[in-house]
């Protein structure tokens, strides 16, 4: 900006003829803003009101890489979402089912608490296994799709939902596989839309 001002002529004396206005030299101004004379600006989060963060150590980077790996995501989906959530869902459905502990040989006999708890545990373990398998399948498929596409967006969950639902439904036939693909893909899209 100083060179631009230096290029401008001094103002004329009062009463004298007005000199023609000098055109603004945009090229000099642009060199200082976006050209070769532009000074690099270090962005400090503290100056913008943010919290400054120190650079990450190698251990932190290693932990982040491990948590972003397909194996960790599959294990988390299998154990965390699948087994725990499936087990809780199984115990809940067994708790509200009136046929828990029911003996078809003696329909008038009231089941004992031990029999009811045993049935609830068996149903909880059954649901937990199924949910864990579905969660691991979905997570592994999503990780493979994301690695193949090189993007992290909503399409990954829809594609992996279709693959997982189709694989689960295909055991009952082609029609069930197509319905499973569409249903699981729609459910995955809805969950992804809600979470994002």
UniProtKB/TrEMBL annotation:
Annotated compartments: Mitochondrion inner membrane
GO MF, one annotated term:
protein transmembrane transporter activity
The Gene Ontology biological process annotation of the record reads: protein insertion into mitochondrial inner membrane
Q: Which UniProt keywords apply?
A: Membrane, Mitochondrion, Mitochondrion inner membrane, Protein transport, Translocation, Transmembrane, Transmembrane helix, Transport
- Enumerate the residue ranges of region (Disordered): 1-22
Q: Where is the composition biased (Pro residues)?
A: 8-22
Question: Per its UniProt record, what Pfam families does this chain match?
Answer: Tim17
Q: How does this chain sit within the bilayer? A: Multi-pass membrane protein
Q: Which InterPro entries match?
A: TIM22
Question: Where, by residue number, does the polypeptide cross the bilayer?
Answer: 70-96, 176-195
Its domain of life?
Eukaryota
Give me the Gene Ontology terms describing cellular component. Answer: TIM22 mitochondrial import inner membrane insertion complex
Task: Tell me its family.
Answer: Belongs to the Tim17/Tim22/Tim23 family.
Give a short account of what the protein does: Essential core component of the TIM22 complex, a complex that mediates the import and insertion of multi-pass transmembrane proteins into the mitochondrial inner membrane. In the TIM22 complex, it constitutes the voltage-activated and signal-gated channel. Forms a twin-pore translocase that uses the membrane potential as external driving force in 2 voltage-dependent steps.
Assembly, in brief, is: Component of the TIM22 complex.
Query: Per its record, how is this protein called by name?
Result: Mitochondrial import inner membrane translocase subunit TIM22
Q: Which gene encodes it?
A: Timm22
